[in-house]
Amino acid sequence: MNPRGRAFVQIVILVGVVGGLILLFPKAYAFAEMAARELRYFWWLVLLLALAGWLIWGFRKRP
To answer: Which distant-in-sequence residues (6+ apart) come within 8 Å of 5 by Cβ?
Structure first.
């Protein structure tokens, strides 16, 4: 699989996981909606997403 295809698959999986979590945890969706409205909560959401991205893509072993 080429890098572009792999990146596409990762994005599709990430969107699917986020969608599934929104369906499973409606309070998380309410938090994200509130975060979009109020800036002080928005920064916590940005930090949580950055941590998730680091754990997914940045925390694997380097060759």
So the answer is: none
Q: Which residues neighbour 21 within 8 Å (Cβ) at sequence distance 6 or greater?
A: 28
Tell me the pTM.
0.48
How many CB atoms are closer than 10 A to CB 32?
16
* Integer Cα distance of 4 and 1 in angstroms: 8
pLDDT in tens, 3-57: 888 889 998 998 998 888 888 888 878 877 877 777 776 777 788 888 888 888 8
| Domain extents in the chain | 25-63
Cβ distance 42 to 35 under 8 Å?
yes
Structure tokens at 53: 């991205």
